[in-house]
Design goal:
Blueprint: H1 4-15, H2 25-40, H3 46-55, H4 70-81, H5 86-98, H6 113-124, H7 128-141, H8 159-164, H9 169-175
């Protein structure tokens, strides 16, 4: 397992080659680096944090017809091929299954310090200048309107409404991005 992290990096780079610019290798790299920084200030299993950060968007459901099983299954298959212990695989898969913002639904089905760290690192990449650029890049990728005053932001969406929303990109700031700073999990992430 000494080559696990380099092998994971190579796998993720290969899987995300040509991906939409806001969810590409460079997003993963920023999340990974932020997760490592946050982990230094928190008690956690650093290997789980590393793997969770590297694999958190390995097959994001929004690029797979909404299928939330592709990412966890892809990660599981890769990790099994690397002879990672089952306990670690389960933890990483749980991070992948629970990391995403789910609209107005705040209830977590799984909780761990490692999920909190990776989720905070992912959220840090969704705010600030990079977050703004990523939002508009994805909106353009999905051919969404930039702004439409007739479509007001909805901060109380169900998970299904959030996933199927085609609202203008500016709404995404009010529905998610501006809310993230108050939803950080770790002291270090805040």
């Amino acid at each position: 397992m000494k080559d696990l992290i380099p092998n994971t990096i190579a796998f993720v780079k290969q899987q995300l080659h040509g991906a939409e610019g806001g969810h590409d290798w460079f997003h993963i790299e920023r999340v990974y680096n932020n997760a490592l920084l946050i982990a230094k200030g928190e008690q956690c299993d650093e290997l789980v944090v590393q793997l969770g950060a590297l694999l958190h968007d390995i097959a994001d459901s929004k690029f797979h017809g909404g299928d939330e099983t592709v990412g966890p299954a892809t990660a599981r298959k890769f990790l099994e091929g690397q002879d990672v212990p089952e306990k670690t695989i389960i933890h990483v898969v749980n991070i992948i299954e629970n990391i995403s913002f789910k609209g107005g639904n705040f209830e977590k089905k799984f909780s761990s310090p490692e999920l909190d760290i990776v989720q905070d690192a992912d959220r840090l990449d969704a705010i600030g200048a990079v977050g703004i650029a990523r939002a508009f890049n994805y909106g353009g990728f999905k051919n969404r309107a930039l702004y439409d005053p007739a479509i007001t932001p909805n901060t109380a969406m169900t998970k299904e409404e959030y996933k199927s929303s085609s609202a203008p990109t500016v709404n995404h700031f009010y529905e998610k991005l501006l809310l993230l700073k108050d939803r950080m999990n770790t002291q270090t992430g805040r």
